[in-house]
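Lab notebook: predicted structure, single chain.

Context: the supervisor wants predicted structures on file for every construct in the current expression panel, including those that have not yet been purified. This is the next one on the list. No modifications to the sequence; it matches the entry in the shared construct table.
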Amino acid sequence: MFKTPRDLEVRFKNSLGAIDPLMCVADIAANELVSNNDNQQVTSLSRAYNHKNLNLEKVDLSVVSLYVNLAHVAYINSRAELFCDNSVEFIKEHTGNSNSYNIDSIDFLRKAVFQIHVRKHSIDKKVRKLDESIYLDYIGKEELTVIDYFRKIRNVEFHGGVQGVSPVGQGENELIYKRFKHRLNPFHEIAVRDVILYSQAWQSAAKNICSNLVDIDNELLGKLLTRYSNYSDERKNNAIAQKLEHDYLQPKNVVNTLKDNGWVA
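Prediction complete. Output recorded below exactly as produced.
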């Protein structure tokens, strides 16, 4: 079981970090194969890999890299869903609130945030939806924009209608660039860098969510003050600050404000 929000964040980050480099290699390999061989050559090469009945004569090899990138997207989605499930289990354990909620039909990310928020704040079980601003507070604006874009295109077929699938608005794309140093491309132009952006957005969203799982209130601060009560003032302050930043993923400015207030929320 996950003991701290950081445990959740690190598990998710590591699960993406393990596959991201390999998928980049797959993208390179696909591009090199297609750019240096025609259809007949690739068909001949396939015989050496036990694809004896594969005929690529009429296959558009130019989209091979796109399929590789979508496989990468699918893997990120599977890890993201598991992260969301783990986050909900964590909040159930942390709050002791395992009530069932009837939620309006929404994507799995917003569904997880909904369950986290209503359990943290003991919201009435009759509530079925939250204001969009709450999702933004937990996830982050640019993060959610990128994740929503890939969610909307994940089930789009390559054949037919693809050219009409546009990225987010120019203003939103500039904010994404400022945050992640890359702009989203239209669906039919998606490259490995777009998938890396998707991975970055999910990792950042996960950290934001985990930093909001546990309220840094006077109850928690009191427990930390008691734990380090035998330390000198300097060591105690450093220990509490490190605990909040490391295990609870709190920003340094928030921790400094709490420290200046004498560890009072």
